[in-house]
Design a protein that fits this description.
The two termini are about 15 Å apart. The model has no long low-confidence stretch (mean pLDDT about 90). The protein has 15 helices and 13 strands. By secondary structure, the protein is an alpha/beta fold. It has 2 domains: about 1-185 and about 350-365, Rossmann fold (3-Layer(aba) Sandwich); about 185-350, Rossmann fold, CATH 3.40.50.2000. The strands form 2 sheets. Strands 3-2-1-4-5-6-7 form a 7-stranded parallel beta sheet, sandwiched between helices. The longest helix has 20 residues, at about 80-100.
Length: about 375
């Protein structure tokens, strides 16, 4: 039995919670067999029976409060004394957790910042890089600090999208293997077969945290395109004070179950004009697996999965968005593009069981168990 200490600052509290859903899905798939036992250090939530909760009561309360306050990324954006205190406590608690779990075969840390407290230990480590933490490489001194963490330990850095690999290889390729490992998609999304509109209009959906970077040019470029035959539904928590245009139907946060059972079956596709440091957005993969075309901004994370005019549409300017809406103006075009999107995800991403297999292979390779 391989003992893996997995650390994350995001985890869903229950089945309706969207936060850190991908962590829970991976933990579930890794725990299905008898090959891996997960020791989980993450915010409290529902876990499979064989997963060991390795948090102290104090760490549990702190992580619970962290999630209530919007998560680590939301807190760090404030750049105040409170955010500095949060960083200090995170590093302190993780240092203690790594020390308590010295008997684990290895550590699997989600996000680069969660690997920093490994400094001084000898744990073999897999580090998942998701995109939001990729921006840490721009912080002065961060690459040097992370190199000190990686030195003298077996290490594999696993970005969840290939576009991040070149820079990671440049920064750390002499100290660690850089192996892109895409996350999976739950089988239930692939089973969504029929999209039925509630009326004769086209309903588009955007699922995102409401921040300036995540919204991008959506409010600016979408004006005049939505409100008539095309309706835009916006979902997500308000993490910055932004004024929602009146031509957008804003619904607040949404659960994965509501997306699956209510919204995806009636919508024509998903739109994201994010300018945020994205890795490989999970909601985009789930929408594609459900047979929905994607209209997306021209950033590396989107170019990594969208083939222009085949399984979606890449937009770089306002006239591109107008052209995309005009293109997706018949059910037949939407259905054909959506099926292309589903096929791409099935072939290139697969299910969470496929993802778990990729990670188990990485674990064994790191420890030399496959030699």
């Amino acid at each position: 039995m391989l003992e893996v200490l997995m650390t994350s600052t995001s985890y869903p509290t229950d089945h309706t919670d969207w936060r850190g859903r991908f962590i829970a899905d991976l933990v579930k798939s890794l725990s299905k067999g008898e090959r891996v036992r997960i020791r989980l250090w993450a915010p409290p939530g529902l876990t499979p029976p064989l997963v060991l909760d390795v948090k102290t009561s104090l760490e549990t309360l702190w992580l619970e409060r962290l999630m209530t306050d919007g998560g680590i990324a939301s807190i760090l954006r404030k750049k105040n004394l409170s955010s500095l205190k949060t960083v200090f406590l995170l590093l302190l608690f993780l240092t203690r957790a790594y020390h308590r779990n010295r008997s684990a075969n290895m550590v699997h840390a989600f996000w680069l910042q969660n690997a920093i407290p490994l400094l001084g230990s000898r744990h073999p480590a897999v580090i998942s890089v998701l995109g939001s933490d990729f921006g840490l490489l721009d912080v002065p001194g961060m690459v040097r600090l992370l190199r000190a963490v990686l030195k003298n330990r077996p290490c594999l850095i696993a970005p969840n999208a290939t576009w991040m690999a070149p820079r990671l290889i440049e920064a750390f390729g002499d100290l660690a293997e850089i192996r892109p490992i895409p996350f999976g998609v739950d089988e239930k999304w692939f089973k969504l077969r029929e999209n039925i509109s509630i009326d004769d209009r086209f309903h588009w959906i955007s699922v995102t945290r409401i921040t300036s970077d995540k919204i991008g040019n959506l409010f600016k470029w979408g004006k005049g395109l939505f409100g008539g035959d095309h309706i835009l539904h916006l979902f997500g928590p308000m993490q910055e004070t932004l004024s929602i245009p009146e031509w957008i139907d804003y619904h607040g946060p949404v659960s994965p179950n509501d997306l699956l059972n209510k919204w995806f079956p009636l919508c024509s596709g998903l739109i994201t004009l994010s300018q945020h440091n994205e890795g490989r957005p999970q909601v985009m993969l789930e929408a594609m697996a459900s047979g929905l075309p994607i209209i997306a901004s021209d950033i590396p994370a989107h170019l990594d999965i969208i083939e222009h005019k085949v399984n979606g549409w890449i937009v770089s300017a306002s006239h591109d968005l107008k052209e995309a809406i005009s293109f997706f103006n018949t059910p037949e075009v939407i259905r054909r593009t959506g099926e292309s999107a589903r096929s791409w995800v099935f072939k290139n991403i697969g299910t969470w069981d496929d993802c778990a297999g990729r990670y188990i292979a990485a674990y064994h390779d790191l420890l030399g168990w496959n030699r």
